[in-house]
Amino acid sequence: MVEKRSGNRLAALDGLRLVAALLVVFYHYVALAVPWGHATGTIFPTAHKAAQYGWLGVEVFFLISGFVICMSVWGRTVGQFAVSRVSRLFPAYWAGILLTALVVKFWPEVTSLRGWDTVINNLTMLQAGNNTPNVDPVYWTLFVELKFYLIMVVVMLCGVTYRNCLLLCGVWTAAAALAPALQTPLLTAFAMPQYAPFFIAGIAFYLMRRHRPNAILWAIVLLQLLLAQRYIGHRLATNLGQAVAHTLPSWPARLLIVAAFALVGAIALGAFDRIQWKWLTTAGALTYPLYVIHMNIGMTLIHRFRNSLPAPVLVASVTALMLVAAWLVHRLVERPLGAWLRTRMRSGIDDVRRHVTPRRRHARPTTPPTPTVPHQAEGDRTSPPARTFESV
User: Fold this and answer.
1) Which of 217, 255, 332, 364 has the smallest CB count inside 10 Å?
2) What is the pTM of this model?
3) Nearest C-alpha neighbor of 177 from the set 159, 197, 149
4) Phi first, then psi: what are they for 2, rounded to 5°?
5) Are 109 and 300 in contact (CB under 8 A)?
6) Which of 84, 142, 152 is nearest to 288 (CA)?
7) pLDDT tens digits for the chain (392 residues)?
8) How far apart are CA 129 and CA 89, in angstroms?
């Protein structure tokens, strides 16, 4: 995650990613009844109220992802982007699946394993596309991310420029706004109306970072902030149930979204460039492994020891254990396996290029076009060269 203008790593963005992950952990461990066997309002009278909004960490992830992925695709080929994403996402994800499957298999206290065929299908990260259950419920967000990557690949094929990124923001905003009314499944699936505002705002913030802020980019961000408010009630009901959602005020969720936009905007404008604490880099590295291992494993541990330790101590202990486990996954799995995958994938791409390029070299040369002359018929004239658009 290297910022191209200054050459400094955006350490503040790494810190925000960890905060988002801990919000999700807080929500799962304190707000949900599953690991405790009953509603947690009596266990955590005060913390429970705040934890009910912890699911917003996912929205913060999507906002950061829009920023980071737009930065990642700039100046890269599709092959380079694919290598980067596969080597980054899959090693920790595979470790998370296998660890979660083993824990749930031997201690089916909060959930049960639905068969090893489900585990095998989950290894592809495409299980949501064929209606296979997730080994861990948090994996639904990864399929949303994959769809975002496909959208960015389309932009890459057209050329990653300032102009094309602005066009993406406009077209995607329109598609996400119209999808609910049109009720077209394919459009809804890829427009992702609930989450598009966060991805789009992240892209706009990165354009501010790479170039400079202007009225158009601020208008995009403000529009996405307004559109993001539309689905807060739905997300509350989805996560906490319709009955609970009706009793909760929505203003804390709205305030958290505004705060997230403000923080990412401040990072984009360089307000936190002086912050280069090394531990934030480690924090950023732990975020993804923590996310993919924490839910079912952590809730199983809480359920198993809920009568043996005071609730706050148990939550703190399980969270600390998950952070240590995330560090071990990062060091022992993610880094070595990621490096191996990058090497193998780059070698494979080079091999494909070696087989494809010679065919183009030895292809029969085409006959040069006949120059246009005044007496030619209108349909015989050669077309003028197409205009090209450079990055603004």
Assistant:
1) 364
2) 0.87
3) 197
4) -100, 130
5) yes
6) 142
7) 444 444 457 899 999 999 999 999 999 999 999 999 999 999 999 999 999 999 999 999 999 999 999 999 999 999 999 999 999 999 999 999 999 999 999 999 999 888 899 999 999 999 998 999 999 999 999 999 999 999 999 999 999 999 999 999 999 999 999 999 998 999 999 999 999 999 999 999 999 999 999 999 999 999 999 999 999 998 999 888 888 888 899 999 999 999 999 999 999 999 999 988 888 988 989 999 999 999 999 999 999 999 999 999 999 999 999 999 999 999 999 999 999 999 999 999 988 888 876 555 444 555 555 444 444 433 333 333 333 333 33
8) 18
| CA distance linking residue 287 with residue 274, whole number of Å | 22
Nearest of 214, 201, 215, 219 to residue 165 by alpha carbon: 201
For residue 122, give the amino acid letter.
Answer: N
Answer whether 302's CB lies under 8 Å from 109's CB: no
CA dist 231 and 222 (Å) reads 16
Q: Which residues of 53-66 are buried (b: 16+ CB within 10 A; e: fewer)?
A: bbbbbbbbbbbbbb
Can you tell me the distance from the alpha carbon of 7 to that of 65, in angstroms, rounded to the nearest whole number? 19
Please tell me what DSSP assigns to residue 5.
Answer: T
Alpha helix segments (H runs only) across the chain: 11-26, 47-51, 56-73, 78-106, 116-122, 140-158, 162-182, 185-191, 196-210, 215-228, 232-240, 242-247, 251-268, 278-305, 311-329, 335-361
| Helix, coil or strand: residue 9 | strand
Residue 202 and residue 70 in contact, taking contact as beta carbons nearer than 8 Å = yes
